[in-house]
Amino acid sequence: MSHIHERAPASAAADWTIPQDWSAYTPQDHAMWDTLFARQAAMLPDRVVPEFMDGLDILRMTKPGIPDFSELSDRLMRRTGWQVVAVPGLVPDRVFFEHLANRRFVTGRFIRTPEQLDYLEEPDVFHDVFGHVPLLAHPVFADYMQAYGEGGLRAERMGAIDRLARLYWYTVEFGLIRQGDDLRLYGAGIVSSHGESIFALDDPSPNRLGFDLKRLMRTKYRIDDYQQSYFVIDSFEDLLRQTVETDFAPLYHALEGAPDLEVDTILPEDRIYTLGTQAYARGRFTKEDRLP
Ligand SMILES: [Fe+2]
């Protein structure tokens, strides 16, 4: 879900891409995809933005088995000009941003083992493709992803990648959206996780706060467990507009002296959808504290 670590590829191109090697998947690999797909497809329709379900249909991702990236890219290209390319694992920030800025989404090609059904340290093809790709068929979200990549390249020059990475985390990975009176899921880290798809919407523990770009770029995040705060956007159009129209340079400068906010901080100016009990997180920390 993150792209911050680097690992030297043994045999990758300069842009780190490798062939998907679709024919190398075993029947067990495809069966794993189908298991994960069936579980999420059964519970998501009432929870995820309809645009996500539309994306599954448009891209024919309902077809059994791990998708062939070249077929997926053909459909995506016709729709929004995006492609899906395989990489050997997490790639350097610059490579990641460069691909996004050119409307290429990089994805892992391996699939988790049955033991990893609910927890993964590195994103696999189910997270990357099921989680991220359907919304790339949505024209506005597709433009947002490109704008984020372009912003990433600028942030790198300004030494502000850590700030900008929080925007990705709290939108692309763990974003919620308001639709009418409902909150809905759209973040890939949520929709590719059975547990978090329930937790993020239904559990009284986490905060659900209105999206505020500057505030969010000050907010730490959890990489090891469910989020303690989620941020709710008003629409994909608004998210794209803010990302494109905001001049990030002065924002980064203004944030230079500002202390980071903890994952559960509430500010007086926050727009609160849910004031979380944080009961889940407290339970987890207590257990951890008891470890020798
Ligand atoms: Fe991800």
TrEMBL record:
The keyword Metal-binding applies. Its cofactor is Fe(2+). Residues 1-292 form the Biopterin-dependent aromatic amino acid hydroxylase family profile domain. Keywords: Iron, Metal-binding, Monooxygenase, Oxidoreductase, Phenylalanine catabolism. Fe cation binds at residues 127, 132, 173. It catalyses: (6R)-L-erythro-5,6,7,8-tetrahydrobiopterin + L-phenylalanine + O2 = (4aS,6R)-4a-hydroxy-L-erythro-5,6,7,8-tetrahydrobiopterin + L-tyrosine. One of its GO terms (molecular function) is iron ion binding. Belongs to the biopterin-dependent aromatic amino acid hydroxylase family. PANTHER family: AROMATIC AMINO ACID HYDROXYLASE, PHENYLALANINE-4-HYDROXYLASE. This is Phenylalanine-4-hydroxylase.
